[in-house]
Amino acid sequence: MTAPIRVLVCDDQMLIRTGLVTIIDAQPDLEVAGECGDGQAAVDLAGRLRPDVVVMDVRMPVLDGIEATRLLAGAGVPHPVKVLVVTTFNLDEYVYEALRAGASGFLLKDAPPSQLLHGIRTVAMGAALLDPEVTRQLVGRYAARIRPAEGGAPRDLPLTPRELEVLRLIADGLSNSEIAAALLISQETVKTFVSRILAKLGLRDRVQAVVYAYRRGLVT
């Protein structure tokens, strides 16, 4: 039998945390490895328990979810942990900062249990969880603030013209199927392009690719 996905739940509201734990523990392929109510405790517990996924709230005492995510999954972390951020508002700037800090995706707290479970499984498999429409809204809202943070022209990128085209479509929030339809290629070919782009740019997933594209001014 395949070992269950071990999840650490971090939320300072006990009622929400208890609900998350109950939902997760009821699944045969998931297991709650631990729970806590602040970001520092999440960092400490993750170091000891090595969960597969951390479900992380954003606004918490002692250490907020953004800093905790950066310590668990940010650049330079030797053994990063996959983090799924939960938040109250889908356009909250804290969510964007959490994605920059290394989170693999996010969900709204009012999402149905099925979405939470799907999100945990998706992140555990190494994929990013970021709805295309929310991508357009979230990153689009902060595009003006993102771009100046990093210079560089498209010609400096180690990408072929086709890979650059795919990267721009990813940043526009298109899914693999939508990219395939737009470019008249198969979804498997799109997956290959995405893998190459991530490898060449040293990015972990599509979330980082979106942020990268906006910071380099590749999309408007």
UniProtKB/TrEMBL annotation:
SMART domains, alphabetized: HTH_LUXR (SM00421), REC (SM00448)
Sites of 4-aspartylphosphate modification: 57
Residues of the signal peptide: none
One of the Pfam families matching this protein, by short name: Response_reg
Segments forming domain Response regulatory: 6-124
Domain HTH luxR-type: 152-217
InterPro entries cross-referenced by the UniProt entry: CheY-like_superfamily, NreC/VraR/RcsB-like_REC, Sig_transdc_resp-reg_C-effctor, Sig_transdc_resp-reg_receiver, Tscrpt_reg_LuxR_C, WalR-like
PROSITE patterns according to UniProt: HTH_LUXR_1 (PS00622), HTH_LUXR_2 (PS50043), RESPONSE_REGULATORY (PS50110)
Protein name: Response regulator
